[in-house]
Design a protein that fits this description.
The protein is of the alpha/beta class. The chain contains 20 helices and 48 strands. A hairpin with a 5-residue loop joins β29 and β30. α3 packs antiparallel against α8, α11 packs across α12 and α15 packs across α16. The radius of gyration is 32 Å and the shape is elongated. The N and C termini lie close together (6 Å). The N terminus is likely disordered.
Length: 827
């Protein structure tokens, strides 16, 4: 890695590896004693049963020996840890009430309050205490509870005491006992019967104080038939997004509306986001300058690197046709784009014929878009439709007159004005006027095509294009066999719609914009000119700088330049209801973005308990990236009752040592468990991770997938347990664990334990351990990637089984975390 690259990585990390000077309201002395436990309980004014529970757990912690398996725990000094630090007076429900210093910390981490509005609920924990919890009002009315665990103990004591410690008892292991003795903070979730929480609940955790322990306790209870997704761990105002039949400002889009996604199909927006942003705003300018779009540096764009997809010829870069079909595009943050990188212009795939729209009507509407007006006569209020032509365009005048007469059922007339060289075809017809307004609107700057016209088969759309070009366009020969088409309009919406129609016909049209200006005439008159959009394309051959990708049904368009300007205001983002979680900014595919979350040094000992009652569904997603001195020792366990589904989606990077094995006990028949666990270990790191599935009932299903990557001497270990108890008949279970090592110094271990006590169990187990393929790295480097970039790409492909399960913004963030871990792998 070069020195400038190291500086970039250092700067990227330093944004998150910071320390706040906070004056804590309360804190315990260093070290763990019985007095420490009683002091924490007294601080919180807990009921007697919780006080006794803590003391019992403390006694068990003292008696229980340190685990002799797993990672090296010998360097943990429990006497140096501060077990409780209180940064604020109470848990706030309004972000405005959070203390300024703490609020600034979470904003540094990229979590401003406005960005939280796309979530169903959000919590934030700072050191030992939850400082903020909020849940959407409509969910509260349905009975959904999402608050800090301490608050839940006070406000919902019956349900809290009923379930607390039933999934992970204090006596389960030494660290569950430690957590039970000194726990503070965490999240409590209760979802009533039959309620589906449509958007994720999310919690953020931050350790600030040196030698601080964070011991949060999370309890999730999902009642019968309910569903929830719990997650642990943008464009400026005025930017245009495509609705398929038009472009609209992103801030005007609302949840439930349909927009075009990166696959060229209409998709529902599940949520919209707005946040305050101050910083650079990038403008990505493709060869079609009129499609330039603005976005924040972290906002991903669907991109194919020039170095991967183009080769140099005598007169410039040309597409490597083989690479076009074999290179996998990637979501690249706008701040990492380069000039001549190729960005994706998807082609709309939806085609619906509308027999009520005749071929004659299409040909007439082409003339109308170019030359027409539809209005009520100001004097007589008579509905009128007119088309204007040059007086010598006799063939066009006759054709238009015939179409208007046929469509209106009335004889169209012609008014000629030789002095102005103009001939006007007109007809007085209410039905025809309404057809014009319905399908094309009115006014030169506001005409547009209705959605019925935009989804017609492309060959029928060609009928409209042909007559439109006769009015507002022209053809001219560039050289024998090559004809160029140029067309112009004052309507921005119509310009982008025409570009889309030509794309469906296999031709990419560039758009240039002549900005509005004022002109003073020789006689002193002042004339105002509107913005004017000029489209240009080659008719017989493809645009030389743009390439069509039939497999992905899109054009790859090179970036001409990238500009930056300071910005301070609102930025917006869209969350799509289905994959791909992306939309179109001025025709180009962009993804929604998210803010990263990292932490600082300390001991993290957490307990998570999940109860999925009959027919409930729970997904628990974790993306953790602790700093390199953190011991991350976590117990996560779920109980799945009859017909319930529990999914753990778990990722771990960073930390000195992580020991974490998400577990699901299938306690009711037909319950399902799905666990995907990934880990990345670098220098000085040991990721001892895995999963457990315990089948206690008939007809249950489980899947465990574990992926690990180790580099620079890092170590990964898979530790799994699959158990089928007596009486758990007709079980189907699968286990797959794959390990990838990037060098000779790294290490990977596998410790599977399988205990099956029913003969009719259907079980599969696969495991692989291997080095990174040098052939793959060599091939990618031959396409222009550096060795580090090539290894990063291979690793991301290896971990795809995890990333494809994430909401897309989190998948992007996880890939960025992996990339940060990979930086420095090469000299």
């Amino acid at each position: 890695m070069t020195a400038p690259q190291r500086d970039i990585v250092r700067d990227e990390r330093s944004k998150f590896e910071f320390h706040d000077d906070v004056v804590y309201l309360k804190q315990t002395k260093r070290g763990l004693t019985r007095d420490t436990v009683e002091e924490i309980s007294a601080f919180k004014e807990e009921p007697a049963w919780m006080h006794e529970y803590r003391l019992r757990a403390y006694e068990h912690f003292l008696k229980r020996p340190m685990p002799a398996w797993g990672g090296d725990l010998s360097k943990i000094d429990f006497d140096k840890i501060v077990y409780y630090r209180k940064p604020s007076e109470r848990e706030e429900k309004s972000w405005d009430d959070v203390p300024d210093q703490i609020k600034k910390t979470f904003e540094k981490l990229g979590i401003p309050e406005a960005e939280r509005k796309f979530l169903a609920g959000v919590g934030a924990q700072y050191d030992s205490e939850v400082v903020y919890h909020s849940v959407r009002e409509e969910l509260t009315k349905l009975g959904v509870v999402f608050m800090g665990t301490d608050q839940a103990l006070k406000e919902h004591p019956e349900i809290f005491q009923k379930y607390f410690g039933t999934v992970v008892p204090a006596e389960d292991n030494k660290f569950s006992a430690l957590n039970a003795a000194v726990w503070s903070g965490g999240s409590f979730v209760y979802v009533p019967k039959g309620v589906t929480v449509p958007l994720p609940l999310q919690a953020y955790f931050r350790i600030n104080g040196e030698n601080t322990g964070q011991f949060e306790r999370t309890l999730i209870v999902v009642d019968e038939g309910a569903s929830v997704h719990y997650i642990e761990g943008c464009c400026p105002t005025g930017e245009l997004v495509s609705l398929g039949d038009s472009m609209v400002a992103i801030e005007s889009v609302v949840a439930g509306q349909h927009v075009m996604n990166s696959g060229g199909v209409e998709a529902e927006v599940s949520a919209t986001r707005r946040r305050s942003y101050a910083g650079p705003m990038l403008k990505v300018v493709p060869v079609s300058v009129g499609n330039a779009f603005e976005l924040t540096p972290e906002h991903p764009v669907w991109t194919m690197r020039r170095s991967q997809a183009q080769i140099w010829r005598k007169h410039g870069f040309v597409m490597d046709e083989a690479a076009l079909h074999t290179t996998e595009p990637e979501w690249i943050p706008a701040g990492e784009l380069k000039v001549n990188d190729l960005i994706c212009f998807p082609v709309a795939s939806k085609q619906v014929d509308h027999p009520e729209i005749s071929d004659d009507l299409l040909r007439f509407l082409g003339y109308y878009l170019a030359e027409g007006s539809a209005f009520r006569n100001g004097v007589s209020n008579v509905p009128t439709v007119t088309l204007s032509f040059h007086i010598e365009e006799r063939a066009l005048i006759d054709d238009a007159r015939q179409l208007m007469s046929s469509l209106s059922g009335k004889q169209a007339g012609v008014f000629e004005n030789p002095k102005m060289h103009e001939a006007r075809v007109y007809v007085y017809s209410q039905p025809l006027m309404e057809l014009c307004l319905r399908y094309c609107g009115s006014g030169s700057a506001t005409k547009r095509l209705a959605h019925e016209l935009m989804e017609l088969p492309s060959e029928r759309q060609r009928l409209l294009l042909e007559t439109y070009l006769l009015g507002d366009g022209n053809r001219f020969t560039v050289k024998p066999g090559q004809t160029k088409i140029r067309a112009g309009t004052a309507s921005r919406t119509l310009a982008y719609q025409l570009q889309e129609i030509w794309a469906r016909l296999g031709r990419y049209a560039t758009i240039q914009i002549r900005k509005a200006f004022r002109e003073v005439m020789p006689d002193g008159r002042e004339i105002s000119h509107q913005d004017f959009y000029v489209l240009a394309l080659m008719e017989e051959v493809a645009q030389r700088q743009v390439w069509f990708d039939a497999g992905r049904n899109c054009f790859w368009v090179p970036i001409r330049r990238i500009e930056s300007r300071p910005y301070d205001g609102w930025v917006y983002n869209l969350e799509m209801a289905s994959a791909p979680n992306a939309y179109l900014a001025r025709g180009f595919a962009v993804h929604n973005c998210t803010a990263p979350l990292y932490a600082t040094d300390a001991l993290h000992v957490a307990v998570v308990e999940v109860i999925a009652l009959p027919k409930a569904k729970v997904r628990y997603t974790t993306i953790q990236n602790w700093s390199n001195d953190v011991y991350n020792l976590v117990t996560k366990r779920a109980h799945a009752h009859e017909d319930a589904t529990v999914e753990w989606i778990d990722a771990n990077t960073g930390s000195r040592l992580t020991m974490k094995y998400p577990s699901i006990y299938l306690r009711g028949k037909n319950a399902t468990a799905d666990i995907i666990s990934v880990a990345v270990a670098g220098k000085g790191q040991h990721q001892d991770t895995g999963a457990k599935a315990v089948h206690l009932a008939p007809n249950t299903r489980s899947r465990i997938v574990s992926k690990s990557v180790s580099k620079d001497g890092g170590r990964t270990s898979y530790r799994g347990h699959l158990k089928v108890a007596p009486g758990a008949t007709n079980v189907v279970a699968s286990v797959r664990c794959d390990a990838l090592m990037l060098d000779d110094q790294s290490r990977s271990d596998t410790y599977p334990y399988i205990d099956i006590q029913e003969d009719d169990t259907s079980m599969s187990h696969e495991a692989t351990v291997g080095r990174i393929s040098q052939e793959q790295v060599f091939y990618l480097m031959s396409r222009g990637l550096t060795e580090n970039e090539a290894q990063n790409l291979v690793v991301q492909g290896f971990l795809e089984v995890f990333t494809k399960e994430l909401p897309m913004e989190y998948a992007i963030e996880f890939n960025r975390l992996v990339k940060l871990e990979m930086e420095g792998a090469i000299g």
